[in-house]
Design brief:
Layout: H1 2-13, E1 35-42, E2 45-52, E3 63-69, H2 76-83, H3 86-92, E4 95-99, E5 102-103, E6 110-111, H4 123-137, E7 140-150, H5 152-163, E8 169-173, E9 191-196, H6 213-223, E10 231-234, E11 245-251, E12 260-266, H7 290-298, E13 319-321, E14 328-332, E15 340-346, E16 351-356, E17 361-365, E18 372-380, E19 383-391
Parallel strand pairs: 3-4, 3-7, 7-8, 8-9, 9-12
Antiparallel strand pairs: 1-2, 2-4, 5-6, 10-11, 11-12, 13-14, 14-17, 15-16, 15-18, 18-19
Length: 393
């Protein structure tokens, strides 16, 4: 009974932050040609998502990837419309993916499971698998993967910073950290928090399931070993009629140049700054655009020690060409090689084929491969190199 009571209390924090009539004012078809739907099975559940691919994307150049997670009771289409990242992606050239959560058993409302709902759905595993799935179809820079979201989706983004090693930075809008589950990040990660002091859904001071926002900021300042004394700047009050003002807290000097940033929105509500106001959820700060600031924050950081095959230091004495390739790859190396082999793997590390290197200009047939990113693992004379290759058609 106590568990149900705590869950019920938490529903207040995670309530819907969109209203459906908003959709009728924003033309989805305007960017439909750049939107790609997808699905796959994870942990016995068919999970769905769609990706926004900017027109500037080229398979020959790796692109940053941003996960954008909807709030409790919302969905991925609403999150795309509400956050308005598409024009920024078009200019900056990053790919954005909008996953869909599952329905919570108690309310049958869409949600993300970051450990406070008493649910067993593996959203962390799904989102990591989603990164691999997107990387199998597009040339993703594995050092520049980020996550953001609204409310429950923001809390899930922070949870992934606590539990995953895939992200270079995360940003939270109206989200907090769980009281129940300890945060144990495997490495320091820059974090941006955007939160209103008068949020009617997720209290600024915290509640039975969520931590006070200033505690969240302090936690990440400590983890990144930033200067605990921030540089505080008043955001220019360019819209005096929005009912709120904002302050920007910058904690600098962290490990590897990391920073933690906090936008404190005085009298702000459970809303995304800089977009269409939703009065029923409190004041929307119109003095800055949250999406623009999130990208400004993200683009500073990359994971130099990102996991995966893409980061193996390569030896310049061996050439894999052409890259990008279509039907054939050539491995070129010196005539003196006595013992060589290769393995061709997909983005997830699954072995597709292997063979011996019998001559200094070895040919690999790639005509049967789909468009995407692959890896060639070459072992010659007792040392190993790995090269990332792009297959086009």
């Amino acid at each position: 009974m106590l568990t149900k009571l705590v869950l019920a209390v938490n529903k207040v924090f995670m309530k819907r932050h969109y209203f459906v009539s908003l959709l009728s004012f924003i033309p989805f078809f305007a960017f439909a040609q750049s939107t790609v739907n997808g699905s796959f099975d994870h942990d016995g559940i068919t999970r769905t998502y769609f990706s926004y691919i900017p027109a500037s994307y080229s398979p020959a150049q790796s692109a940053p990837l941003i996960l954008n997670l909807h709030g409790y009771t919302s969905n991925n289409i609403q999150q795309q419309l509400y956050s308005g990242f598409a024009p920024i992606a078009d200019t900056a050239g990053f790919i954005m993916v909008f996953p869909q959560g599952t329905n919570e058993l108690l309310t049958q409302q869409p949600f993300w499971n970051f450990g406070i709902f008493g649910e067993t759905v593996d959203d962390l595993g799904f989102l990591e698998a989603l990164i691999d799935t997107i990387s199998a179809h597009y040339n993703i820079d594995q050092k520049r993967i980020y996550s953001t979201g609204m409310s429950n989706g923001a809390s899930m983004s922070i949870f992934m910073a606590c539990r995953s090693n895939r992200f270079a930075a995360v940003a939270s809008v109206c989200g907090s950290m769980s009281v129940q589950n300890p945060c144990t990040p495997s490495y320091p990660i820059p974090v941006m928090e955007i939160f209103g002091t008068s949020d009617p859904i997720g209290p600024y001071e915290g509640n039975a399931t969520s931590q006070p926002i200033e505690n969240v900021v302090s936690f990440w300042v400590l983890k990144n070993q930033c200067n605990p004394t921030p540089q505080i700047t008043a955001v220019p009050d360019i819209n005096t009629g929005d009912g709120c003002t904002a302050e920007h807290y910058l904690y600098s000097g962290g490990i590897d140049g990391h920073t933690v940033e906090f936008y404190k929105i005085n009298n702000g509500g459970h809303t995304w700054p800089g977009v269409i106001p939703i009065p029923m959820y409190g004041n929307t700060c119109m003095d800055f655009n949250a999406s623009k600031e999130i990208w400004r924050f993200f683009r500073q950081f990359s994971r130099e020690n990102a996991v995966g095959l893409a980061n193996v230091v390569t030896d310049t004495g061996i050439a894999v060409m052409p890259n990008p390739s279509q039907d054939q790859l050539y491995i070129q190396f010196g005539e003196s090689v006595k013992n060589g082999s290769y393995e061709l793997l997909n983005i997830n590390g699954r072995l597709l084929r292997r063979g011996r290197l019998t001559q200094s200009n070895h040919v690999i047939d790639t005509s049967d491969l789909n468009v995407g990113t692959y890896f060639i693992r070459i072992e010659i004379d007792n040392y190993i190199i790995t090269r990332k290759v792009i297959i086009l058609k």
